[in-house]
From TrEMBL:
This is thioredoxin-dependent peroxiredoxin. PANTHER family: AHPC_TSA FAMILY PROTEIN, THIOREDOXIN-DEPENDENT PEROXIDE REDUCTASE. Belongs to the peroxiredoxin family. BCP/PrxQ subfamily. GO terms for cellular component: cytoplasm. PROSITE patterns: THIOREDOXIN_2 (PS51352). The keyword Transmembrane helix does not apply. GO terms for biological process: cell redox homeostasis; cellular response to oxidative stress. It catalyses: a hydroperoxide + [thioredoxin]-dithiol = an alcohol + [thioredoxin]-disulfide + H2O. It is an enzyme of class 1 (oxidoreductase). It holds the Pfam family AhpC-TSA.
């Protein structure tokens, strides 16, 4: 069952595209978006749009992680090809997806996004349309007062 707003964020650890072990604390505003596969049309749109909004996320103090069941090598190639500055977490065994309750029964993670702050799930997006999603999540995060942009 997918985690819901109000649930505690799980303790997870995964390797990023650089092969570094990452263990997010989730005590600061964080977006974790699950996507099916590297270098596929929808996933590329979503990653590129998170990258386009990345500076605004950073200015607002929000960390962004992309997660799929692809391995580190696939993430490295995808991040290099698309010039991504945020971490892509490799979840080839589906352990991170399982911790969040994200469906992987098709062999890939269902497109699902979580906004987390103070160790708690604040918002969940399921059935995500990748086009425009990064901007929607940023706007909702700002509107909810979880983060602010300095003007």
């Amino acid at each position: 069952m997918t985690l819901a707003a109000g649930d505690a964020a799980p303790d997870v650890t995964a390797f990023n595209q650089d092969g570094d072990r990452v263990a997010p604390a989730f005590d600061e505003p964080t977006v974790v978006y699950f996507y099916p596969r590297d270098d596929t049309p929808g996933c590329t749109i979503e990653a590129n749009q998170f990258e386009q909004e990345y500076e605004s996320y950073r200015e607002a103090g929000v960390t962004v992680y992309g997660v799929s069941t692809d391995d580190v090598d696939s993430h490295r190639a995808f991040a290099d090809q698309e010039d991504l500055d945020f971490d892509l977490l490799a979840d080839p065994d589906g352990e991170v997806a399982d911790a969040f309750g994200v469906d992987t029964s098709s062999g890939a993670a269902a497109r699902t996004t979580f906004v987390i702050d103070d160790g708690e799930i604040q918002r969940v997006y399921t059935g995500v349309d990748p086009d425009g999603h990064a901007r929607t999540v940023l706007g909702d995060t700002l509107d909810a007062g979880l983060a602010t942009l300095d003007d």
